[in-house]
Automatic annotation (TrEMBL):
Gene3D superfamilies: 3.10.20.30, 3.30.70.260, Beta Polymerase, domain 2, Hypothetical protein af1432. One of its GO terms (cellular component) is plasma membrane. This is Bifunctional (P)ppGpp synthetase/guanosine-3',5'-bis(Diphosphate) 3'-pyrophosphohydrolase. Residues 437-498 form the TGS domain. Residues 382-406, 533-559 are annotated as: Disordered. Residues 632-706 form the ACT domain.
Length: 710
């Protein structure tokens, strides 16, 4: 491998867009030998990178720190043979390019002086002040002579405690580790492997949680090269073989640019190659990679609102893969990250993943807490435009209320206090960091729920409704019906569906799908009070499904009072046929089916004549009192921007809820939308259809034979 390439001289040339440098440099460091041997006017490069982000920064203190670091490290050399000062300089340059503020850079220049030279903390405090002293102390290792084998774990404990008071400690540690990983090639293989494993188990999860994407991705690639050299070589070869794959993505980028330009949206559309580990993951997931899989498109816009405008245009002019859509702007991830994610298919079928964010969100996505500025100066944090910096956002579950002291860090610092011995601390730390992070999901009302990764719709239902979730019969996830067992992902929108009749209750198998104590305790308690329900199959279907069944693990939407009554068969379970979704006052015919239930079809449904032809005897059915119903409508329209938004608005205004929707790709300017809708009252159907027909561009709305695909 060639992970030892970067030196400060190579990594500090002036570039137009400092924010993308690090990724490119990381890639360059992996792909080939960089220029070596020149000890440059390095503090000049640091100053230049710093000025690019902070034009008014006072550089005098940086010069003083450099003079002290250079003179005290003089005569020391890295294992590579380079003067030692190249290391603190490289670390400081990494931080400067990410936009770190002056105090961090000062401490970064001095970060190894107390550990490795005659400089003392007292001297650092006297010459550079309390904050710089605190940061240098925070990253200074505990002595092997004092701690023996416990030195490394206890150093991490000390660093994390210091990070709890000043998150800039960890910024410096991460940049320090990145430069050491880049230059690890000179170490013995066993040592490389040991350091790579600690990087994988501790530093990379910390980089992820602190939102420092640029450092995290490069660290991942460096670790990958050391711990999985064969897979790494294979991935590297794959990327090299597909060097022109970027053309496929560039073609989509060109179309995207044109679409946004026509819509009058100011945007930069960039190609963003995936890092090695990302390519490797995609290959494992999809097998063969197509051209557009080697990168993603990054759309950078000015304002938050432009993100949604750009998204709307892309979803109108391309075919979106709705399942890939994630809104991390309305509910940012716990680690400060904000973006819209989507995937679109262009006319030739190429699918491109697209990230949409503002320039400011981009900076935060790359640099995370490093971009916080001085987190203890309120106006700096606000000036950085960080989510949650100015005011804690509602429903953030505490994770982002204070970006300098995230919830996971507080919890970590709590439990470490009760882990006095080193082994317990070290094992628990790696387990804690390895644990899948928390996810944030949207509620239908726009609020958010914080859940453990792996949580299901059952967990979400109890988190939102407490014991009222006992009557849950299904859920909508991202607008589509989903089984209660469905595991939720970060950014999903989940809407638990509760039955109207309070009699229904949880099924024992829900316990297999819970990750939260709250859900588990509530379900266990209910089952204990209802022993008859604890038996498998005890919850016989007493509610008929209204319309197409929710693919919900056998539990069906209760809509019994919308349902026809069968005469001759009192009390029979009645089910509305999914093929024709009858709605009052349709003429209906019923057929008894196995198990004593009756299925109800519209009179004109082809299913009726087919059943008659097979000799099945119909039974007379009639509508009970009109109530909730489900219906599938097809809207034919001429394609235009905002059509989907206007139609869904008309539907919502008419009081109907969208259960599922299918949008077919436009053909000759015409588009067909199929909606399965839930109405409070069947009597609302004619006005709903009229309202949909009134939407500009719509020329027909009709009842469908088939429900919209889920
Ligand atoms: Mn160091």
């Amino acid at each position: 491998m060639s992970a030892e390439a970067a030196n400060p001289g190579a990594s500090s040339r002036r570039r137009a867009r400092p924010r993308l440098d690090l990724r490119r440099l990381g890639r360059a460091a992996l792909l080939g030998p960089a220029a070596r041997g020149r000890v440059p006017d390095a503090i000049g490069h640091v100053a230049e990178a710093h000025r690019a982000h902070h034009p008014d920064a006072d550089l005098a203190i940086l010069h003083r720190a450099y003079v002290l670091a250079e003179s005290s490290h003089r005569g020391q050399f890295r294992k590579s043979g380079e003067p030692y000062i190249t290391h603190p300089l490289a670390v400081t340059l990494i931080l400067a390019e990410l936009g770190a503020e002056t105090t961090t850079l000062t401490a970064s220049l001095l970060h190894d002086t107390v550990e490795d030279t005659d400089v003392t903390l007292v001297q650092v405090r006297e010459e550079f002040g309390e904050e710089v002293c605190y940061l240098v102390d925070g990253v200074t290792k505990l002595e092997k002579v004092d701690y023996g084998a416990a030195a490394e774990p206890e150093t991490f404990r000390k660093m994390l405690v210091a990070t709890g008071n000043d998150v800039r400690v960890m910024s410096i540690k991460l940049a320090d580790r990145l430069h050491n990983m880049r230059t690890l090639g000179v170490m013995r293989p066993e040592k490389q492997e040991r350091i790579a494993k600690v990087t994988r188990d501790v530093l990379i999860p910390l980089a992820e949680r602190l939102g420092v994407q640029a450092l995290k991705t490069e660290l991942e690639d460096l670790v990958f090269a050391i711990l999985h050299p064969e897979e790494y070589a294979r991935t590297r070869a794959l990327i090299a073989e597909n060097a022109d794959a970027v053309d496929a993505l560039a073609a989509v980028a060109g179309k995207v640019r044109a679409v946004l330009r026509d819509a009058g949206i100011q945007a930069e559309v960039l190609l963003r190659p995936r890092h090695f580990v990302s390519v490797h993951r995609v290959r494992l997931k999809r097998g063969d990679l197509s051209g557009t899989d080697f990168g993603r498109l990054l759309v950078l816009v000015g304002e938050d609102a432009d993100c949604y405008a750009a998204l709307g245009e892309l979803h109108t002019c391309f075919t979106p893969l709705i399942s890939e859509f994630k809104d991390f702007i309305a509910a940012p991830k716990f680690n400060l990250y904000q973006s819209l994610h989507t995937a679109v298919a262009s006319t030739d079928g190429a699918v491109a993943e697209v990230l949409i964010r503002t320039h400011q969100m981009h900076r935060v996505a790359e640099a995370g807490v490093v971009a916080l500025g001085n987190p203890y100066t309120a106006d700096t944090a606000e000036g950085a435009g960080l989510p949650g910096a100015a005011e804690p956002s509602a429903g953030a579950e505490g994770e982002r209320a204070d970006p300098t002291r995230p919830g996971w860090l507080s919890r970590l610092l709590d439990w470490q206090e009760s882990a006095p011995d080193t082994d317990t601390f070290w094992t628990s730390l790696r387990a804690d960091l390895a644990e899948d992070r928390e996810i944030t999901v949207f509620r239908a009302d726009g609020g958010t729920l914080g859940l453990p990764a792996g949580a299901s719709c059952v967990d979400a239902a109890y988190a939102q409704y407490g014991e009222a979730a006992h009557t849950c019969v299904g859920a909508r996830v991202n607008g589509r019906l989903a089984a209660l067992a469905t595991r939720l992902s970060d950014g999903d929108t989940v809407e638990p569906l509760l039955a109207q009749d309070a009699a229904s209750g949880p099924s024992p198998d829900w316990l297999q799908h819970t990750r939260t104590p709250a859900a588990r305790i509530a379900i266990t308690g209910w089952l204990a009070e209802h022993p008859e329900a604890a038996r498998p199959q005890a919850a016989a279907p007493r509610a008929a499904a209204a319309g197409p069944s929710a693919a919900s693990g056998g539990r069906r939407r209760a809509g019994a009072n919308a349902v026809a009554e069968a005469p001759g068969l009192p009390g029979a379970t009645v089910r509305l046929a999914g093929c024709c979704t009858p709605v009052p006052p349709d003429a209906v015919t019923g057929f008894p089916v196995r198990g004593g239930a009756v299925t109800v079809h519209r009179g004109e449904c082809p299913g009726v004549s087919r059943m008659r032809a097979m000799g099945r005897r119909p039974v007379e059915v009639r509508w009970g009192r009109a109530a909730e119903c489900r219906v599938t409508l097809v809207a034919e329209a001429f394609g235009r921007p905002r059509l989907l938004a206007d139609l869904t608005e008309a539907i919502a205004t008419a009081g109907a809820a969208v259960v599922s929707a299918t949008v077919e790709p436009p053909s000759e300017q015409r588009v067909r939308h199929t909606y399965t809708l839930q109405l409070q009252d069947a009597a609302g159907l004619p006005p709903l259809m009229r309202a949909m027909r009134d939407v500009a561009g719509v020329y027909d709305v009709s009842r469908a034979r088939h429900p919209a695909a889920h």
